[in-house]
Specification:
Strand content: 15-25%
Number of strands: 21
Radius of gyration: 24 Å
Distance between the termini: 28 Å
Structural class: alpha/beta
Shape: globular
Largest sheet: 5 strands, parallel
Helix content: 25-40%
Mean pLDDT: 89
Number of helices: 11
CATH architecture of the largest domain: Alpha-Beta Barrel
CATH class of the largest domain: Alpha Beta
CATH topology of the largest domain: TIM Barrel
Low-confidence stretches: 1-51
């Protein structure tokens, strides 16, 4: 394999230091590789009216992937990163470096031997070797390799010792990939009877972690520090939240977003969009709509931060092309739109960590407050006819044997016109009632256990808010949580396409 030049941490540190010391806008001409989305209509001029002593930070944009199984996607994402001069962080799963026949080498701390919610590395030695090669290419090209643990079970209740076991096995599954996958003739995967690692990096180069299902606790933090990790990306926060350090770890949270033109809430992850937009079911008829909605949502997120306090933008995707690849296309278009704009750094989490380490608590407090010289407002071409994020929530309750109510709340309710906005009730996918929007809607309908009620607030074909609940198994009771609430939870095992392999 052709050896490519590695990006050293010294080089990264120098770049971060230069950015930190800069007191004026640095110029960065758009790359010739950028697309038409980066039109000349995007302009910016300096504004030095604010004479804060704190320099303006760069706008970090972090693109990360969880998983690592799909070799075709490895190739596609690596090609895109190289062609567009962006860097990704890949949080890889240890079980994907263990062939199915050898799965009993792994012992999940709570489920036992050979258990994984996302499968293992497949049946093909060639496929596993290709995955190893892709990881090496990623590292050589300046991307970062992080840990997504192993079996993808919820670690919220793991003890410290169970997390330590999970991390110890992660190192062993990854760096022991040759030895763990020995053939029948006693040789290792690469044909050599040795315990060598095939990777161009070592354990010390893996400093970041994202928990499966974002399932974490204080025990996670203790075990992470003990294992030598420097940062964790398993929390969530509002979009303008700056990272902070807790117990020796930098916390880089994913964002809680509102989908553009709607009141639908989600995390800044592809599977979460998939959950709230199409209830985690493929919907080929609306793939372009979903792509536009994600892209506009990401642009709203970026502009709010770039023109505000410059809090890092966190995007987390997977190796699965949900809704016909809508979210991967949206991510690529977003990267091509913003990554070559002035003062934008589409880098790895380690680069963000080094930037954070190079600044004092006082400086970081100024950043969180937006207390630094601001440039003039930046704008981007709109990709959707529905831009505004709405503050609106709906509560579906069962108030009698066959009576249900739907209550709307939020500051944007008063802006919804009954002549234009409709509330539709559906039972098991069939519309049973429809009428103008009101603060409280009511329906009398006979239901049984496992029936699904869905409320849709919409204007024509444009859906503003949905609330869906499935009645209790054997009880016909209304659950507290809606299907849509899952969009604010961590990535489910299905996000890794386990059923597909």
């Amino acid at each position: 394999m052709t050896q490519k030049r590695l990006f050293s941490r010294t080089q990264v540190s120098l770049v971060a230091s230069a950015l930190a010391l800069s007191l004026t806008l640095f110029a960065c001409a758009p790359s010739a590789k950028s697309t038409s989305a980066m039109s000349s209509s995007v302009t910016q001029t300096p504004d030095i009216s604010n004479q804060s002593a704190t320099s303006r930070p760069p706008q970090f944009v972090l693109f990360a992937f969880d998983g690592s199984y799909n070799n075709d996607f490895w190739e596609e994402s690596l090609s895109f990163a190289k062609e567009n001069d962006v860097r990704f962080t890949y949080f890889v799963s240890g079980v994907y470096f263990l062939l199915n026949t050898n799965k009993n080498i792994y012992r999940e701390p709570t489920q036992g031997v050979g258990k994984s919610a996302i499968g293992f590395g497949g049946n093909s030695s060639e496929g596993l070797l290709a995955r190893v090669n892709h990881v090496n290419v990623a590292f050589q090209d300046g991307n970062e390799i992080g840990s997504h643990a192993n079996g993808h079970f919820d670690g919220t209740r793991y003890t410290v010792s169970e997390w330590k076991s999970e991390f110890a096995q992660f190192w062993q599954l990854l760096f022991g990939v040759y030895n763990n996958n020995r053939g029948l003739n006693g040789t290792s995967l690469n044909g050599l009877a040795d315990d060598s690692s095939p990777f161009l990096f070592s354990r010390k180069d893996i400093t970041g972690f994202r928990a499966p299902l974002l399932g974490r606790s204080s025990a996670t933090d203790t075990a992470l520090v003990d294992a030598g990790f420097q940062y964790d990306t398993s929390r969530t926060a509002e979009p303008t939240h700056w990272p902070y350090k807790s117990g020796g770890l930098w916390e880089f949270p994913l964002a809680r977003l509102t989908i553009a033109g709607t009141a639908k809430r989600t995390l800044s992850m592809d599977y979460n969009f998939f959950m709230v937009q199409s209830h985690a079911h493929e919907d080929a008829a609306h793939t372009e709509k979903y792509e536009r909605e994600m892209l506009q949502t990401y642009q709203n997120y970026f502009l709010k931060n770039y023109n505000g306090n410059r809090a890092p933008v966190h995007i987390g995707h997977h190796f699965v092309p949900f809704n016909g690849g809508a979210y991967w296309r949206a991510m690529k278009r977003f990267a091509q739109t913003v990554c070559h704009l002035p003062e934008v750094k589409c880098g790895t989490y380690s680069e963000l960590q080094e930037f954070m380490d190079s600044h004092s608590k006082s400086e970081l407090a100024h950043y969180q407050a937006g207390d630094f010289p601001h440039s003039s407002a930046l704008d981007l071409p709109k990709v959707s006819s529905h831009i505004q994020e709405l503050e609106l929530s709906g509560n579906l309750e069962k108030v009698g044997t066959s009576t249900f109510t739907f209550t709307l709340d939020g500051k944007d309710f008063v802006n919804l016109k009954p002549a234009q906005v409709v509330v539709s009730w559906s039972l098991n996918g069939v519309v049973v009632k429809e009428g103008p929007i009101s603060k409280v809607s009511r329906i009398e309908i006979e239901t049984k256990a496992n029936d699904t009620l869905r409320l849709s607030v919409h204007s024509g074909k444009h859906e503003i808010l949905t609330v869906t609940k499935t009645l209790g198994d054997g009880t016909n009771a209304m659950p507290e949580a809606s299907h849509e609430s899952k969009a604010l939870q961590g990535d489910q095992p299905e996000a890794h396409g386990f059923l597909a392999h």
